[in-house]
Structures are given as C-alpha cells and as structure tokens.
Amino acid sequence: MTGIGRHLLSIDDLDRASIxxxxxxAESFDEVSGREIKKVPALRGRTMVNLFYESSTRTSSSFELxxxxxxxxxVSVRAQGSSVxxxxxxxxxxxxxxxxxxxxxxxxxxxxxxxxxxxxxxxAAVINAGDGKHEHPTQALLDVFTLRRRLGSLxxxxxxxxxxxxxxxxxxSNILAFTRMGAAVTVCGPxxxxxxxxxxxxxxxxxxLERLGEAxxxxxxxxxxxxxxxxxxxxxxxxxxxxxxxxxxxRPGQLLxxxxxxxxxxxxxxxxxxxxxxxxxxxxxxxxxxRMAVLxxxxxxxxxxxxxx
Amino acid sequence: xxxxxxxLFQRPDRPAELLISGAxxxxxxxxxxxxxDVLLRGGRIAELGSPGSLGxxxxxxxxDAAGKHLLxxxxxxxxxxxxxxxxxxxxxxxxxxxxxxxxxxxxxxxxNSDPVxxxxxxxxxxxxxxxxxxxxxxxxLAAITKNLKGHELTEMAELRxxxxxxxxxxxxxVVSAGTLRKAxxxxxxxxxVIALHEEDPDLSRDGAMHEGAVSARLGIAGIPSLAxxxxxxxxxxxxxxxxxxxxxxxxxxxxxxxxxxQAKRVGARVSAxxxxxxxxxxxxxxxxxxxxxxxxxxxxxxxxxRALVAALRIGLxxxxxxxxxxxxxxxxxxxxxxxxxxxTGLETAFAALHTxxxxxxxxxxxxxxxxxxEGAVLYGLPIPTIAIGQSANLCLVDLRARFEVGADxxxxxxxxxxxxxxxxxxxxxxxxxxxTVAFRTAMLAEALAIR
Lengths: 309, 451
Description:
Number of helices of chain B: 15
Helix content of chain A: 25-40%
CATH topology of the largest domain in chain B: TIM Barrel
Strand content of chain B: 15-25%
Largest sheet of chain B: 9 strands, mixed
Oligomer: heterodimer
CATH class of the largest domain in chain A: Alpha Beta
Order of helices and strands of chain A: HEHEHEHEHEHEEEHEHHH
Number of domains of chain A: 2
Radius of gyration of chain B: 21 Å
Number of domains of chain B: 2
CATH architecture of the largest domain in chain A: 3-Layer(aba) Sandwich
Shape of chain B: globular
Number of strands of chain B: 19
Largest interface: A-B, 25 and 19 residues
Strand content of chain A: 5-15%
Distance between the termini of chain A: 11 Å
CATH topology of the largest domain in chain A: Rossmann fold
Number of strands of chain A: 9
CATH superfamily of the largest domain in chain A: Aspartate/ornithine carbamoyltransferase
Radius of gyration of chain A: 19 Å
Number of helices of chain A: 10
C-alpha cells in the first residue's frame, strides 16, 4: 500500500506512486469543484489551521477553500496583528494553536525548515506551504497535476525552469517533482541567480535561452524586485531583454507555466501571459483540487503509521 | 598597576594527593607510552614507577586504573564562557565544569562578551571572578578593536599588563587590512598572540551554511570557502611583512590549509587551530536543518574535512580548539537560518575525535594527545607534561567506554552540542588541572576499583 506519511514537508517525502495517488484523488475532487454544491463531508468536525508568516494570496486562499470543500473548520492566523507581533516564538505559537486540537496545520514561513520544526511540536499533520527558499511541495503537485492532464504523462518530457532559481522554493520542489515523474529538467537564468552545484538536484543548468526550443514546457519563475538591491542583475531591463519569455521566443506547441504572481513585462510579456500556450489559469484552478487531495490523503486516506515506515 | 606575571586564573583548591596505579601512560612530549604508576603529592607529579611499584601515602587515595589511559590534560585555546552578560548560556563555573568534564586542564576564553572584553577594567573583573569560580585555569584574549567594531585598537599594552594572553575579535573578522596592520605593528610593543577569525563578510553576506550542493538543495544562502581562505592569505602576507605572531582560528576548508602551508613555507610566524566538528562532520548533516549543525565557520564538504585531518596529522595545523559556543535552547529552537551560530564542544572533543579519527585509523592516539595540548605551546602557557616535578595536568580516559552524548545531560549550561545523541567511545574519568582534581566522573567509583 502506498502511503504519503503523516506530514507533507518536502517532495522528498513522496515517491512517484504517492504523487500519482494524490493526483488521482485530485481528479476526483476536481469533479466536486464542478458541482453546484461544491462540498463533501470528508473532514466534517475537524479543524485546519492556516499559519502564514509571509504574504500569500493563492496558496492561503486555496488551502482555505480546499478545507472548506471538505467540510472542515478553518482558522487563519497571519503574523501581522497576531501575538507573533508581540514577540511570540514559532514554538509557542504552534503549541498554543495545537491546544485547539487541529487535524492539520498549514504553515508558510520565510525560513527553511520551519515546517519540519512545527511537525516536531504538534500532534497535527503539518503541510508545508512554503519554507524560505527551500520547498513549496503543494505548488509542485499542482503543477504536475496540470501538466499530467495536458500531456497524459511527464515521462520523457523536457521542462525548462527559467528565471531566479537561486531564491525560488518553487524551483527546488518542482525540479524534484518533475524528475521524479520522469521528466528531464533544465534550469536557466543569469549566472548570478543559478545556485552553484544545482545540478546535484538532478537537473541541467543553462545561462542562455539558446536551446529553449528543446523544451516541451517552459516554466517561468517570478523575478523578485527586491533582489535588485543586491545587484543580482544589473537592471530589470537587461534581465528582460535576455530572459523574458515572449511569444516570439516560444515555439508552437510549447506549454507555458508560471507559479504567480506574475511581473507582467519582466519575466513574461503580456502577450505570452495571454497566449493560448499559457496554463497559468489552469494552475490556479488545480490548486484547490490538489490541496483537497493532500488534506484527504493525510487526514483520511492515510494508512497506519507502521505501513508508512 | 604593576603588570601581572600570571595569565591563567582559577579558584584555589586542595592539591591532589593521589596514586593513579597501572594506567597506560601516553605522553609523546615525555616519550612515555607504557603502563605506569603515577603518584601525585601536593599537586605535583612526585613519582613515576612500574605498575604496582608505588604505594600511596597515608590519607591519600589510590585509583586502580589498569586498562585505562592517562594522558596529559588538554588545553583549549578557543572557548566562549559567555561572561559577563550572557550567563543564561554559560558562566565561569559551568563553562570550566564542562572543560574539566572533557579532560581540559586549561582554556582560553574569547572576548565577545557583553560588554566586550576591550578594556582593562572588564579584564580585571573577569580575572577576579575566575580566581573565585574557575574549576580549571582560564586565560583571556582581549579584543583587538574597541567593541569588536574593527575600527579603533584597544589599549593593547594596558590589557597585556592586566593579564590578557593575546588579542582577537573572534566572531568577527578584522575587515580593514590597515587596522589589522597597526595591531600587528603594535604587537612589537605589547606582545601577545593575535588570533584571527577569518571571514570576508562581503563574500559570506547573509550565508548560514557552506556553499555547495547541500545549500543549493536547501535554498539556504551559502558561505563560500574562499570567504575564509582569501582572508587567511591576506593576513598571512601582513604577518610576514610585519614579522608578527598570528594565529588562525577555527580553519574550516582545504583552501585555507593551502594558504597556511604557503605562509609557513615562506617563514611567516603563523599557527592554526581546527575544531572537532570540522574534523568529523560535513555539510551533509545540515540536510536535517537541525540548528545544532549551524556554526561559523560552517561545516564544509567531506573533501575539506579530509584536508583538515591531513593537515592536523602532519602538524601543519598545530592544535585542536573546540570553539565551545553555548546557546540557550530557546535561542536554538528556531528555524536554521534564524538560529545563532555555534556548538558546544568541551565535553565531547576527545570522545568525538577518538571515535571518528583514532578508531577509524585517520589519526593515531599519540598525535591526538599532542594536538589537544599544543594550544599551551602556542600561547606560552605551562605545557601539560607527565614528568616528575611537573604540576599535575592529567586526564584519565577509558578508551573502551561507549556513551550516548547528552543522555546524562551536560555540565555546560547549554545543550546545543552537534554530537548530541551520537554514540561515542572514549570517556574522560578524571581530570587533574594545575594540581587539583577538577573532575571525576560520577561513575568513577564503579568504573575503577578505589581502595
């Protein structure tokens, strides 16, 4: 029996069979989202806590929606305006929230490993909704879900991840998930934004778009304006001229993805975003079904712990 | 005030009256490597004899130590005792208790306390406190620059007169080559080793671990090895030019070893230390994101670890230093990037190095014993030697005893030990420091037959 463990902290927690099991479950929940009454009773009477130490629109709202469609009660805590503002430590916050006996805690933090720490401090199932520049596993799952629907399978697909790889948790989780599903991954960006020894994750690295034509899928990362201050690139203008994905740089049939939010006119041109090759809207829609599936697998479909080990 | 003569400080205690019978005595400096009876009288080594040949004096204790090893007491040139100002992490009493429990008979404390040890008044208050509280002799390094800011020199001559062993801005580099050069020139007046934490902050930036495949995987900003090695090369050149005595602290990477080798070859008066964690662990440990593995300099690649061991073996790196850096649990129980740098090390140094290097065949025990005492030579302290007439500085170890690190707690006030939970082999049973019994394991009565 395939199990996904007690928490979802990293794509490394999942083998290919577990990923496929989550995606199959997500397909059935996607059907629920098409109904007039978009609710199933799977988590009735159970509580999910959303604990967000960083701003987020789509991740926090889609987790909230996913929990509600499974009939769970949802508590959302944001760092601003909470006792975190008064200097409460992560450990104390988590132990306080754990007193409400939540079935799951979804955490986003600016620091790598935060979700793993939380898992040690609470009896709840912990889902990593982004920890620093480390991982964002549910983003990777919804991206694989979106691609699997479109391609049937990722086996043998060539996927380019383009942009600020250095600061991207999405890049790390997606390299792991895409390769685990049989795709070949190349990361591409300015040399200042490609981490040294990134190849150890099982991908290739490139610094120009010359061979972009090889890609079946072009996955573009968000260029973070705040990186400009550290001179990782001389200017956004120079970055855009070299790395911006435009319809002219895409060949017909290539699929275009982006985790959002997009800097229109920086990493993607407006025309590229609006082109029929773009799957960006499908990615957002997949978010709810995939997060429903993750919650379900962790809280309902989970096999006994012994079977996991 | 008249200059002090003594630069080590400890609380007065009863001189040891003790017969250690039949231990295998290993002291490369005394050319000893055989079972011996060792008789301590009035805190000095009074007699050495073949096993069973010596009898204890009246009212003195005999420890039957057959099958155990007696080594010269270790000297740690790099510890953080956190006093004044951070006594919730450690103080003179708990820090020297940890030292004694690890077989150390002398330690040298770093000046990055709060306030910083950058004037003679702070130093005098510390030496007075150590004279009341320290279980093993403690020496102090004063800051090179005021408040460790890297700009203005401290009153180095007055600090030397007040008992400073030397100078360091440890925890921070002296970024300005011009400022460091003036300190090296001024050393001609005041003496004292100048010890350097080598790190180019422009290259280390906000890094929290070694830059390499593991940092790429974890998405944690890396500290490249050359942040250290370029500064070692720069400061070795300054030391050579000014003919200054410079000591490189906690070297962590192969490139620094190369810079050190070059500096020694051309005759620079430089020495270096290396920490047990850099000799036994690599950045692979950081995959756990456990903040116990966060220290500065960071754990580096396995190839760096091997280069450090090789350099220590041939004496290119002169000595072992723990960089014992205690932090309270609430400070370390935070995400890796947020956690303060540092691991405790006094209580585990010998066991970790014995287990990981001696038992694995990478280093022999005699060399380890020599490197763990060499800090005394570098700083001009009494050199622990097992010879008649010497003040007793010894530790008795059981090389067969295995234990889980931290299972029985720590003598240190803090528990942030990078070896926590590991099984290590080689346990310190007894430490005699400057002629007094500073530590005996609670198990001593069971481990040894005491008559």
